Amino acid sequence: MRRLILLRHAKSDRPAGVSDLDRPLNSRGKRTAPRVGEYLAAEGLRPDAVVVSPSLRTRQTWDAVQPALKGPEPEIVQAIYEAPDSALLAVLRSTPDTAASLLMIGHNPGLQELALRLAGSGDKTGRKRLTVEFPTAAVAVIDFEGETWGSVAAGSGRLERFVAPRELDIND
Question: I want to staple 134 with a disulfide (CB 3.0 to 4.6 A). Which of 66, 112, 122, 155 is the partner?
């Protein structure tokens, strides 16, 4: 079994004169991201591999999540930045098969589109919500029966859960 954990970056700021790539987390994002990490750890959602967009807000999200997960060193992947679902799927399929679980930290709308594309079954309420939203710091967990990441195809995943920070009572 393969497990994909999609995490949208935590809430970010939009300072004047700062490029999109260099946008930092805002105060809410800085409070929320570590709590999401604690949730992931408490639920046993610990990745074997981590890929992160090169944007500052995604890297800061990982830096805040990582202490709870004690996760592996992330791979910063340019192809994740502001990418469509097809590019994210290509990154996913290139994951080494030695990793049973992958955490991808990226952006919308790509993450939402990827989740919708892959989750052909599973949590019906979560799949319905995914058609409407993928809030900042939300987590989608999708499981696959295949033995390789390369075999992941549209509709082949089962949405195990879709959780937004407000459901964890951490969206302060």
Answer: 112
Q: Where are the domains of the chain?
A: 2-11+29-118+125-142
Containing H/E element for 121?
strand 119-122
Right CATH for 2-11+29-118+125-142 from 3.40.50.1240, 2.60.40.1120, 3.40.50.980, 3.10.180.10: 3.40.50.1240
Distance CA 116, CA 100 (A): 21
Running DSSP on this structure, what letter comes out for residue 56?
Answer: H
Task: Indicate the pTM of the whole model.
Answer: 0.96
pLDDT digit string (tens) for 75-127? 999 999 999 999 999 999 999 999 999 999 999 999 999 999 999 999 999 99
The tokens for 61 are 């999200």
